[in-house]
Amino acid sequence: MSERPRVSVVLVAYNRRDLLIAALDALAAQSRPADEVVVLDNSSDDDSACVAAEHPVGARVITLDRNTGGAGGFAAGMAAALDVPTERAPDWVWLMDDDTIPTPDALAELLRAVDSYEGPVALLGSRVVWHDGRDHPMNTPRKRPRVSTELMDVADRAGARPVRSSSFVSMLVNTKAVRYHGLPIADYFIWNDDFEYSCRLLRHGTGLYVPGSVVEHRTKTFGATDADPGPRFYYEVRNKIWMITRSTALSGPERILYSGAAVRRWVRTFGRSTQRGVLARAALQGLRDGVLKAPRSTTVVLSGLPVSGAVARLQGRRP
Fold it and tell me: Pathway membership of this protein (predicted)?
């Protein structure tokens, strides 16, 4: 890079003030500090917005008057981060939830990989671990298939690996890609929003997994999202159907591949569940809404909120 890139953190918070403080402490301790921290408070019932505003990291806090889920929170936060004067516009946005605790060199390692990679990069993801150091199964990136030996070598020299998808638990996104592809689909609310968004950006773009950049995902339990999700299984089914049938993120062969993978995952979820009746009802509702409805535009979903103007300006005529 010829100049120091500007990086804005977008951190989505909801009712986890103690974890939020730990995340902000970790951001303040970065060896390469971000240029701005935007905390998007998703209408928390606790004092998350207050602790964020009072934290020494100096975050810009945006509080919504309704919970828009992770999908809406990231869309809103990204729009706000980019809706600034040109001289303050970020080159990258670093996305994370309030239970993401980056190690001190997490951002520096992501930017080092950008600087070392021989070509444009749409996004990069960190290695995500649980509190005991094990790789977190909830945030495993999908490897990019059929990558040439030459491109593998290029990525290897940058200390990275090519991927087809990434997680919002520490995703560094090139703002050129955001302006071209638009925002995450806010109507997903939770689940598969980062899968759809990263796949959309990486269908023709380059994504890198950077194992030297490490963050801790402080979930209550160790496991993937198919560990007995209860009523939230509705979002898994509906959103996966929306992604496979209505998103531009996947090619034709990938739609077939991921359809099979989704069915296998759902069968596995049912097999492990202790509340199969709850899952069955959620799955049927998700199947109905996934087939009969389409996701509303992000501009519509986030209308009436403090960020609605920024969202509309960034989205333009996009859905």
Answer: Cell wall biogenesis; cell wall polysaccharide biosynthesis
